[in-house]
């Protein structure tokens, strides 16, 4: 496993399960949906974003889900294939449309969502439609919580997760909380936690940590209240403040990278994709703190770069872009150290 931030070409398959949709992003930031003069069409959906993030970094990725048998659905499947993601796990529904989301960008690049899925095709995936051969060939099986909201997709999610685990896959979970999609906050919390103890790697944002714990504190005590015996790695992403990590043996924090933020959509997915690329072929890195810190530094770089363009999938970085940011950061750190040395001594 390299320690210079590079992602080695992985041979292990990372399968992402869940939703893929079209994000409509305002052409200008800081306005409401009604005030937006126009929108950019961008492919999105957290599990699909992770799959593309993996492939763009040189990993082997597949997506499992359901799209509408419409122009948007066919376009999204084509985008996955163009980005090197296997579409063998995709089903098309002739009776439901591909999901749409309108994303409001605040002046600081943060987002608010309005979804159109009543129901959308992703909600209608059935257990009997799963490509179990693909799922059971995964070394890592990654998923979110949106696929838990309604049947039959919930049963398909549980069946896929069970099959992957029995085949020896590492289970990776990013709840990706979207409260407007849930009947109530209480239902969201209950369903998100219903599969909590199955995952071995869990990533939550600071907002999700507050929601799941019911505490307004973003600290170690709050994070560790989410720990369970089967967990190998718990990550809390903190936006411009980097991330915190927790394992059975150690804990710590890794700083973020300073970039000009345009749109934070997909930043967490870029982070997760980079992490999974690093550990898919050597999970022992989770138990080696120096190596894990290098991995998380790379993941932070990928997350930061994904915020410098509008849209999720279009903004996901390549390995060379991430390495360039790491190199620039190292040079700046050295210059600052020299300045500090001469100023003090």
TrEMBL record:
Top-tier EC class: transferase
GO CC terms, sorted:
cytosol
- Protein's pathway: Glycan biosynthesis; starch biosynthesis
Keyword DNA-binding carried by entry = no
Q: Which residues form the Carbohydrate kinase PfkB domain?
A: 13-318
**GO MF assignments:** ATP binding; fructokinase activity
- Protein's recorded name: fructokinase
């Amino acid at each position: 496993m390299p320690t210079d931030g590079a992602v080695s070409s992985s041979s292990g398959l990372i399968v992402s399960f869940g939703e893929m949709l079209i994000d409509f992003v305002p052409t200008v930031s800081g306005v409401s949906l009604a005030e937006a003069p126009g929108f950019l069409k961008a492919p999105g959906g957290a599990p699909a974003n992770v799959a593309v993030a993996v492939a763009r970094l040189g990993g082997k990725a597949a997506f499992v889900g359901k799209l509408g048998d419409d122009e948007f659905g066919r376009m999204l499947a084509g985008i996955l294939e163009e980005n090197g993601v296997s579409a063998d796990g995709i089903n098309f529904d002739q009776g439901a449309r591909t999901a749409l989301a309108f994303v409001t960008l605040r002046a600081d690049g943060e987002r608010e969502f309005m979804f159109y899925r009543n129901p959308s095709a992703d909600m209608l995936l059935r257990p009997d439609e799963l490509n179990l051969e693909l799922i059971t060939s995964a070394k890592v099986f990654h998923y979110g919580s949106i696929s838990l909201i309604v049947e039959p997709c919930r049963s398909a999610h549980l069946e896929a997760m069970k099959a992957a685990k029995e085949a020896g896959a590492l289970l990776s979970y990013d709840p990706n909380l979207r409260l407007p999609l849930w009947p109530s906050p209480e239902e969201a919390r209950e369903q998100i936690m219903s599969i909590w103890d199955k995952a071995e790697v869990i990533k939550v944002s600071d907002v999700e940590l507050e929601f799941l714990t019911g505490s307004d504190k973003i600290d170690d005590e709050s994070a560790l209240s989410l720990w369970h015996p089967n967990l190998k790695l718990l990550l809390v992403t903190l936006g411009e403040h980097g991330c915190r990590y927790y394992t059975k043996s150690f804990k710590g924090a890794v700083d973020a990278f300073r970039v000009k933020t345009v749109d934070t959509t997909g930043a967490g997915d870029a982070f997760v994709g980079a992490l999974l690329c690093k550990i898919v072929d050597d999970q022992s890195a989770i138990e080696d703190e120096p190596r894990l810190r290098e991995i998380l530094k790379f993941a932070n770089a990928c997350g930061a770069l994904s915020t410098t363009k509008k849209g999720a999938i279009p903004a996901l970085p390549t390995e060379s872009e991430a390495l360039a940011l790491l190199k620039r950061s190292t040079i700046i750190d050295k210059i600052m150290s020299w300045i500090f040395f001469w100023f003090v001594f």
